[in-house]
Please model this.
Amino acid sequence: MKIVLLPSDPFECFEYGFLAFNLAEKYQLPVIICYDKYLGESYYTLPEFKTDDLKIERGKILSEKDLKNIADFKRYEITKDGVSARTLPGTLGGIHRATSDEHNEYGEICEEKENRKMMVEKRMRKLETAKKDLPKSEIIGDKKADITFVTWCSNKAACLEACEKLKEKGASANVLVVKTAWPFLDDDFKKLFSQVARAILVEQNFDGQMGGLIHEQTGIKIEEKILKYDGRPITAKDIIDNLKP
Model:
C-alpha cells in the first residue's frame, strides 16, 4: 500500500517533495518520489521556488477535546473513505498500536478472515480516495498533434525539444507525461489518450516499463517505442533519429 510520484523537472521535484509529506500524513501510508539519475544529478539555473501557497496537511487528527466526546476510540476505525482518525503522541486519551500482523479496529492482532477482508477493503478505499490529490497525466504542446510522445520523468525535456525540432521540419508533435505511477490514474490517462493520433512510447529502459504499466492498468498497448538503455541520457536527436516515417 503506497503512493509513487513521478516528477519530471526540478520544479516538480520540489513540489512533489512537499506534497509527499502531506499525502503520507493525510492517508497514513508510504509515499515514494521516483525520479532518475539524470534529473537528480544535473545542474539547473532556476528562479526561486515559491512557498507562499504551501500548506501543511496533517489529515484526520483528533484533539484532546475531540477524544472526550468519543466513548470508544478505534485507531483503525472502518470508514467510508478508508482513512481512520489518529492522535498525536502525548494527546490525553489517544492511543496508537501497530503490529506486524493483521489487526482489528483497535489495533489488536486479529487474523479472522472476516476482519482481514474488511481491513483490506478499507485500505483499498484509502488508496482510491487519495487519487483526487495526486498529480494527473498531462499533454504538453499542440493538442491536435500528429505524434504524441508518451513518457515520464526527465525524458520529458528531450521529448519537448524533439517536438520543437519536428516543428521546424513542418511536423507536429506533443508530449503526454505520466506523473503518478501508483495508484495509476487510469481514467484520466484514458481521457487524454483518446485525443492521441499516433502514440510513441519514449523510455530509458529495455522493457518499456511505463508502457507495461499503462497496458496493465488501462488495456492500452503502445506498439511504437523508442527505448534507450546504454547508460547515457536520451536526447532529442536520439528520438528523431529513431522516429519511423
